[in-house]
Amino acid sequence: MNSEYIIKDFSQNSTPQDVYRLMQHKHRGNEKKIKREFFDNKYCKSYYNDRPLMSKLMYYNNTAVAHVGAFPMTTSINHKTLQILQIGDIITHSDHIGKGLFSQLIKAVIMDAKEKGYAFLFVVPNSNALPIFVNKFNWKQSQKNVVFSRAIQTVYLNKVFNKLKLINLYSKIFDFFNKKYIIDRDIETVDNKKDIDRIFKDSAFYRYKVYSKNYLYKFNHGNVWFKLDDGMLIGDLPCKMKSIDKLMRDLIVFAKRRGIHNLKIHQSTSSPYYNYFKKGDYSEDDCLPVLTYRLDKNLDLSNWLTCMSEYNTF
């Protein structure tokens, strides 16, 4: 690698602006520009004060040209609490693509994670990054994800507002009429299902996960964590298996009355809910897999499940 390239650790005091500039460059051709407020909330200093971001940046002549985010999380594996990292916000400036910067940053993150005692890392890569993680770095697919969809017969208000680029107006109307469903994020509200290996959620996690607009609602037969995304995209369904059918009926009625034309449920094929949706009136599409890199080679991740609400993109 050219000696003019230098790797630096992410610092809340000096580098957030550099990452923000890279993000702006990455999304320069999109209609939806990334907002500074979104970025500030996602890289929230107070949330990562006790669990610092492990992100790395690459500089060329004192200018940031690449970044790999490494977000600390806590998980439970076989009733043991472990510290892990989620990889996200992988960005390389267009003038520096093809120079191996991403590979150097990933190696630096892994080395640092080993030194600090993290158990494993995981990522939900896009189609461009997937072969690099699998073929070059030997990350393993720990679960296959799918998205189940169900069309709702309604007046399609959500779809029309989206098409007219008035989704913010729809969101305000939605917020106003649905206040009674809101769950207080200052308390631990979602059953972490201690019998299942998964990421641990607490009140700090719930409060942090509002950098992108989403909803944590309580229905008659369970809680639902979702966002409005050309329909209702469900990030988590923390309810008992015996209640899933009644909860989905609640959701269908809820969506129908609010002009939401589609329900989308992200599930792992090894999820306890998978067979329910597989046998129901839902269409099924492939989704990007979850890949893991074990630093503790003795870990068994075969029962470890994730939900979309836990990903840094939700």
Structure description:
- Strand 2 (56-60) and strand 3 (63-77) form a beta hairpin.
- It contains nine helices and 15 strands.
- 27% of the residues lie in helices and 29% in strands.
- The longest helix has 16 residues, at 101-116.
- The model has no long low-confidence stretch (mean pLDDT 87).
- It is globular.
- The strands form two sheets. Strands 1, 2, 3, 4, 5, 6, 8, 14 and 15 form a nine-stranded mixed beta sheet that branches. Strands 9-10-11-12-7-13 form a six-stranded mixed beta sheet.
- The protein has helices at 16-26, 36-42, 101-116, 130-136, 157-163, 167-177, 203-208, 244-257, 274-279, and strands spanning 5-9, 56-60, 63-77, 80-92, 120-123, 140-143, 145-151, 197-199, 215-219, 222-228, 232-236, 262-268, 283-286, 290-294, 304-305.
- The chain starts with a strand and ends in a 9-residue tail after the last strand.
- By secondary structure, the protein is α+β, with helices and mostly antiparallel strands.
What is the number of E strands?
15
As a percent range, the share of helical residues equals 25-40%
> How would you characterize the largest beta sheet?
9 strands, mixed
* Overall mean confidence score, pLDDT: 87
Please state the structural category: alpha+beta
β-strand percent reads 25-35%
By DSSP (H or I, 4+ residues per run), the number of helices equals 9
Radius of gyration: 20 Å
Uncertain runs with pLDDT below 50, 5 residues or more?
Answer: none
State the assembly state of the protein chains.
single chain
Shape: globular
| H-E order | EHHEEEHEHEEHHEHEEEHEHEEE
